[in-house]
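Lab notebook, bench 4. The sequencing result for the construct came back, and we need a structural model before the next group meeting so we can plan mutations. Quick request posted to the team channel:

Model the 3D structure of this chain.
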Amino acid sequence: MTDKRLYTTREAAGYLALSESSFRTAVAPHCRKLSPVPGRVAWAREDLDAWVDGLLGTKRQSIPAPALPVNPLDRFVT
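Done. Here's the predicted structure in token form:
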């Protein structure tokens, strides 16, 4: 599963060995919520790895992504 760059919420939780509810509570607020296609939510592996690095106290160099326009309907997608 590590060859993927984007994960669904279920896959991201599995990648981090967390339940989906734990992922939504502990991790999701600290990662970019991506929408590669309308109605779909994805999480970047680099953000997930950076979150783990934060737990470990290590820093990961990353290039910030350009700001994406906010879709007002995203608040209805879980």
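The two ends are 22 Å apart (CA to CA).
Will bring this to the meeting.
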